[in-house]
Each structure stands twice: as structure tokens, then as C-alpha cells.
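Before relying on records like the one below, remember that each one covers exactly one chain. Contacts with other chains, cofactors or solvent are not represented anywhere in the record.
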Amino acid sequence: MTQFVIPYVEVSHNYFFMFGFYNDKFASADYYPVFPWAWAFLFGIVLSRLFYREKKSIFKFTIKENPIGFLGRNSLLIYLIHQPIILLLLAILMRIFA
């Protein structure tokens, strides 16, 4: 049985980091390259074609009745607000315990 090995590609810059090509100077806290995770996106497309052929939800509730709907409608605002709050809490904890 042969094993597929991804060849090592040496790059001198980090312009294509989103495609998985970067050098040892690249640093990121939340980096996920496109190609190793593209299968999850494509799998979601296939599942949506199978389960939502009639474009009707399989759930019995509407988004307006559900608290998850509020989070979904305001996800960008929630994301932007929680980042400074977490950083502030970490700074306070580091001053207390460091």
C-alpha cells in the first residue's frame, strides 16, 4: 500500500499562506489553510444538495423563535465585541497572577 506524501515547497515570502505555502517566519494564532480544509466546505455543499432539495428547513421552528437565530443574525457584532473583552480579561489576569 502506497502512502500519499505532500511534497515540501520552500518559499521566501508568506504571500500565499492561505493556500498552505509559508516559511518558518510565518506566525498566526488562528490559521487554517484553504486546501487541507476545502473538503469540509465541499462536503457541506453536497449535504445541502441532498437534504435541502426543496429549499425547506427540516426543523420545525423558525429562526425568529429561536435564541440561536439572534446569535446568527448578530454574529459579526458578537465576534468583534468578544475579542477586546477576552484580551482585557487576559491582561487583568496576567497583572494579578504574573
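DSSP finds three helices and no strands in the chain.
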